[in-house]
Specification:
single chain; about 375 residues; D-Maltodextrin-Binding Protein, domain 2; 2 domains; three-stranded parallel sheet; about 50% helix
């Protein structure tokens, strides 16, 4: 076929044609190769904690978890952390998460103890030799999670729960004097929460449940005579050193608590499998990180209480500890008789504790012996 030239019309050269085609093809290829550029905003979940913002180590730990979620997801999944009372009251967090008013919460199971006493068994129950580390082990490997899910269903909570931060045993707390005998605390007006209220009532104490922020003012005005919250750092932040100079560490009333992170079930199921895994595994990461942080901060603040605020620090006497255990025996026995499901959880914990703690307690050397070999009597060591 002959090539016909039309006068006045420029025909593009073969070289220019292929050059333009190459540019067009490259642009199209780039579009296919990088489809995720500028694809929408990150997914943000609203979480309310049971703790005030500012100088509060529990709110800080909730923030640690939120940061881990963001870091693990490369910023694609974020948590908008709000302090106590910003959306709902503390006792309403579980229902707010279940209904979708909140996507997530940060609190402890003892805060929904009023809906079902079994809630307290997931953090503030009897010890049977276990610390919070072992209770968390029971949750994941001893059948506890299935029982926890059944408890959620019984109270009508529609959420998935994760746990983190195995708390050291909580102090018996702040008193007007050094208490060493059971008779010293009988009739005393005292603050605690969860099943511990039943246990210490069985010891003859007059127990009142108060939110953390009300403890110090209540003790200042005489509404209560003694109280516990959780640890030297939190207690210092509440100003307990200003109303008492007698601090008793180590108690069985709440010896194995941890944080609960409820996540609305519909919200969770709507996330990608990767983001679901991040919410779960960030809790495991925070579990370790928060515990390390707690040991450093709690011990440093205990030192400040002793040296700067002249607080007298004691280990709770064996007489009082033994009476606490008797109190637990009575309370658990009473609940077991009237609630088969409660007994089912207790039996599961006992089975786990009997085997696991046999190994752990026999295998652990006497760490106190090693400490005192280096530093002297633990009661006299200055920190």
């Amino acid at each position: 076929m002959s090539k016909k030239i039309i006068k006045g019309v420029k025909t593009p050269s073969r070289r220019k044609f292929f050059k333009a085609a190459a540019v067009t093809s490259a642009a199209a290829a780039a579009t296919v190769a990088m489809p995720n550029i500028a694809f929408g905003a990150p997914k943000t979940l609203k979480m309310q904690a049971a703790w005030p913002s500012g100088a509060n180590i529990f709110f800080e730990m909730a923030g640690d978890y939120a940061k881990m979620v963001s870091d693990m997801s490369g910023g694609e999944l974020k948590i908008d952390l709000q302090p106590v009372g910003s959306v709902v009251k503390t006792g309403e967090i579980g229902q707010a998460v279940s209904s979708g008013v909140l996507d997530m919460g940060h609190w402890v199971t003892a805060y929904w103890y009023g809906k079902n006493a079994a809630a307290s068994l997931f953090g503030t129950g009897p010890s049977y030799g276990m610390s919070s580390q072992e209770v968390m082990g029971w949750m994941e490997y001893g059948g506890g999670r299935k029982l926890y899910d059944e408890t959620l269903a019984k109270v009508g909570f529609d959420y998935i729960g994760f746990f983190h931060m195995p708390m050291p045993a909580q102090p018996f707390g702040w008193f007007k004097k050094n208490v060493t005998k059971v008779s010293d605390v009988k009739g005393m007006k005292y603050r605690t929460v969860g099943l511990a209220t039943n246990v210490l009532t069985a010891m003859g104490m007059v127990v009142r449940q108060l939110p953390g922020g009300e403890i110090q003012p209540a003790m200042k005005t005489g509404l209560i005579e003694a109280a516990e919250f959780n640890n030297p750092t939190s207690d210092s932040q509440f100003g307990m050193q200003d109303v008492s100079k007698h601090y008793h560490l180590g108690s069985f009333h709440q010896s194995q608590e941890m944080f609960e992170i409820p996540v609305n079930k519909k919200t969770f199921n709507g996330l990608s499998p990767a983001h679901q895994a991040i919410l779960k595994n960030a809790a495991y990461a925070a579990n370790t990180d928060n515990y390390f942080k707690a040991l450093v901060r709690y011990s440093a603040d205990l030192s400040k209480l002793m040296n700067q605020h002249k607080v007298n620090v004691y280990q709770t006497s064996d007489e009082i500890l033994a009476q606490q255990l008797k109190g637990w025996d009575k309370v658990i026995g009473d609940f077991n008789k009237k609630d088969p499901f409660f007994k089912k959880i207790v039996d599961s914990q006992k089975k786990y504790a009997k085997r696991v703690m046999k190994y752990l307690l026999m295998n652990q050397p006497n760490y106190k012996l090693a400490y005192e070999n280096e530093f002297g009597s633990i009661a006299k060591v200055k920190i």
